[in-house]
């Protein structure tokens, strides 16, 4: 057990330990508070520095309206001293405006009641500074119960930037809207693809081209403008543009409104990863290009058929085309031309083949021709080549910078021109030495050419003719030379007929001095008219004499015809008496005659019959005198008519011991005609055959018919006729008589037969050769 001293010692030790522990605790707590105070001072200093340099200044508005505000913020607000109450923010010529101050007070009151923050922009009076105020209920740590803390930002620069950005946004928006309007109004499909190359926007023309309901419908369904699908279709061009980061174009077919069209599609990459595109309809351009190509091919094919040489050079002066005449003219080989030689080389090749004019300074001459490529208009010149060749060279610059050259070989033309000049000189000399008076009038009626005979005939002055007067003025002056001045109009009429009506006309006029001229106007191939005058004074006198003689001959012929007719009628009376007395003697009325006397009487009767027939024939010929004989037309059966004619000639044929055959076919039928004249035709043909057939010969009469007419054929196997006899067989003035040297007689029978046949509208043909007999065919129409 402890004693009291020990207890005290223990208590003292405990108390000492407690004191030491409390002292240590106090020391520890003080050190820690000191360290916290030091940290708080540093933090306060840092925060004060940060607040001093912060872009926003704080202002506390307490519940009673008092304001805690720094001097710096007061200067921002345009106040000389910090305000004590919120109402002090608006003063007469300083601080906020009354409107801004009232609005701010309303915001503060709202924040105090609802606890919602607010934001407002205000501007100090007399200052360009813009202040942004953001307010919220003050935290408890601010030690302002029911108060509001306002953070004030100097937004002057921000506000200017905002205004600038707002203006930029407005401008960009305007541009976007205008660009969108342009895109929508563009007369071509336009679209935009996103980064995934799907359609994101299309214009109205695109929608119309694909027959879409709307732009949203087309984008939603992903309707492509051109045919194809996948990366090988319309997206291929967009992929190339995106990957190459360059604009790509490609011609693609498309069906628009049911028509096949060719489009030129352009795709342009954008910075967003998308691709913008548009399409231009080049169908018309392609067709125009195709037509141009076809036209170019056709033009070159046409140029290849020209007789002139044609060569075309491109803008780089290389040969691009030449036709066959060019190759032949300049001896150009196809394999050499295939290399498209340059203009200078072509000229040098021409020089080598001696197809260029001989010049002293060939390089200079060649340089002058090289300038044809740059000439404003065409060039033309003549080349005289060795050997007498003449070329007309035409050089025409082309719009694309090339040159077209045409080489026309005018050698023959030059030769023809020389020959023409010679002919003109010959014509002039001929004009001047002709006996006729000549004048050439143009289509407008003016005198162009004349000879001295023309001038002398009319007595015109050379000065008057040199004015190339019109035909009316010339006729007016020529009227004084005519016996009847009114006949001068004939000159105008003839010239007008030749130049305008293109007809040849003529006429005659008498001059006042007794001369007579024959006029003629002849149209010329060049549209002019040739007026000729021939002096017919001598022939007019001869014509008068011949006319008088002809009238005398006609009167004599009429007398002769009347005499022959009268004599024919007069001869009939003694012939009738002779015939009657001879028949009486032959019949024995005067007693029986001896055998010799009977022969004599029969000879008399035969001669009388022959003479009577000749009288009838002479009467028929003299009565006709070139006129159609008068016919009594009736239906005539040819069979009995032909047999009657054969019976009439049969005794004569029997006397000459001829084989006389008659063939009449059933097709002979009837014709409309004069029976008497037709029987005379058959008799004349048979008598002609009998007269030309020797004894023992054969004669054939053949008659047949067809639907259109009848035919009478008389043939014999006699001696035939010479060509001269056949030619005059039907001539009534042919030499009549008996057979001479084997040639049958040509009497009046055949001319009369021909006259009667033609009067019936028929034809008669005679075919004969010496030793081959004679064939006569008569064709008579049914009508």
Automatic annotation (TrEMBL):
Residues 566-783 form the Histidine kinase domain. It is an enzyme of class 2 (transferase). It catalyses: ATP + protein L-histidine = ADP + protein N-phospho-L-histidine. GO terms for molecular function: phosphorelay sensor kinase activity. Pfam families: HATPase_c, HisKA, PAS_7. CDD domains: HATPase, HisKA. Keywords: Kinase, Membrane, Phosphoprotein, Transferase, Transmembrane, Transmembrane helix, Two-component regulatory system. Its EC number is 2.7.13.3. It comes from the Bacteria. The chain crosses the membrane at residues 7-28. This is histidine kinase.
